[in-house]
Amino acid sequence: MKFQPKNGRASLCLGKQVVTVAFFICFQSHTILLVQPTKRPEGRTYADYESVNECMEGVCKMYEEHLKRMNPNSPSITYDISQLFDFIDDLADLSCLVYRADTQTYQPYNKDWIKEKIYVLLRRQAQQAGK
């Protein structure tokens, strides 16, 4: 058995039979988060992360920092996912660029994609905490 990744495809050799499989975004891919909180372009900023999951955690942390600024006297902050998603929706722009090794380019993703990835991440964290 031999595994040879090349140009976004992996060839798996099983004796005389070769099976080629396409693979897509590795979630350990470098990810750039682009943020524009308001319509003012001078407020634009970015952050880069080693993976999509780290980036999604960064979006959550950004919201938590916002909550701390809005509630400076609160000893603890709690929120549910719908509040986080409302915050994301209220941003003038939020998008990700995820590196794709197969094309050596960055693939753009919008707010809906980001919310989906955050949902998956938080659900997985909740399941692990419940074990």
From TrEMBL:
Answer whether the UniProt record assigns the keyword Cell cycle to this protein. yes
Q: Which UniProt keywords apply?
A: Cell cycle
Q: Which domain of life is it from?
A: Eukaryota
InterPro entries reported for this sequence: EHR_sf (IPR035912), ERH (IPR000781)
Kindly indicate whether the keyword Lipoprotein belongs to this entry: no
Role: May have a role in the cell cycle.
Report the sequence similarity comment from the record: Belongs to the E(R) family.
Name under which the protein is recorded: Enhancer of rudimentary homolog
